Amino acid sequence: MQDHTALRGDCGSCFGLCCVALPFAASADFAVDKPAGRPCSNLQDDHRCGIHARLRQKGFTGCTVYDCFGAGQKVSQVTFGGLDWRTGGREHARRMFDVFPVVRQLHELLWYLTEVLTLPAARPVHADARRLLAETDELTLRIPEELGELDVAAHRQEVNVLLLRTSELVRAGIRGKKKDRRGADLMGARLKGADLRGANLRGAYLIAADLTGADLRGADLIGADLRDTDLTDADLTGAFFLTQPQLNAARGSAGTRLPERVTRPGHWTQPRS
Q1: Looking at beta carbons, which pairs linking 222-226 to residues 24 or more positions away fall under 8 Å?
Q2: Which pTM value belongs to this model?
Q3: What is the distance between the alpha carbons of residues 230 and 136, in angstroms, rounded to a whole number?
Q4: How confident is the model at residue 273 (pLDDT cuts 50, 70, 90)?
Q5: 232-254: per-residue pLDDT in tens?
Q6: What are the residues whose beta carbons fall under 8 Å from the beta carbon of 64, sequence distance 6 or more?
C-alpha cells in the first residue's frame, strides 16, 4: 500500500456497517439514541442512507464527520467475502459488527504509516515504517476469529513510537521556536493569526477555537480535537497526521490551505444557518 487511495471510505462497497455496528447517543451530533448492532432507522434495505443529503439538517452531523478509513469495504468484501449481515445470519452479523471497529483502528494506523513514507524528513525511519505498514496490512487480512482476539492497543503503541520519532524529524526542519502544546486544553482559545508553524498539537483540545488565518504549516495534528474549530483562511500546508474526520468536524473556507491528501469538506462552502 503506497498511497491513501484504499484508505478512503467507499460506501458503495460496504454494507452500511457504521450505520449498524456503532452506537450513538442523542446529542448535538445525533438526533436519537442507537445501540451498537441495531440498524439506524435511516438505513435502507440497499445499505444506503435515506437522508444522506440532509444529514446535517436532520440532526445527524456526527454521521457527516465520521470516516472509516476504508475499513467498511475491507470488512464487507474481504473479511466476510461479500456476504452481508442481513442475509448471513445472526452469528455472522455479530462477528461482522465486532470485527469492524478493530479493522477501522488498523486502517487508521495504515493512514499514518502511509503518510510517514511521503515525508522526506522522515527518511531515517522509512524502513521501519515500511515494515510496520506491511505488518499492519497483514493484520487487516486475518480471519474474523483472529481479528477478534487481536491486541490492537499493543500494536498501536509500537506504531506510535515511530510516529513520535517522525514528528520530531519533520518539525526539526522547520525554522524558529516551535510551540509544544501536546494535549493542551485550548477549547475556545483565541488564536486568530497565531504562528503555529511546526507546533506539536498532538491530542490538543481545540474545540471551538478560533484559528482564523493561523499558520499551521508543518504542525503535528495527530489526535487533535478540531470539532467546530474555525480554520477560515488558515494555512495547513505541510501539516501532518491530519485526517479527513478531523477536517470534517471543523469549520473552514475556500481560503483555507490544506495538504493534498485530504479534501475540502463540502459544508465549508455552504452558508451557515
Answers
A1: 222/112, 222/163, 222/167, 225/249, 226/250
A2: 0.92
A3: 34
A4: very low
A5: 999 999 999 999 999 999 999 99
A6: 55, 56, 248, 267
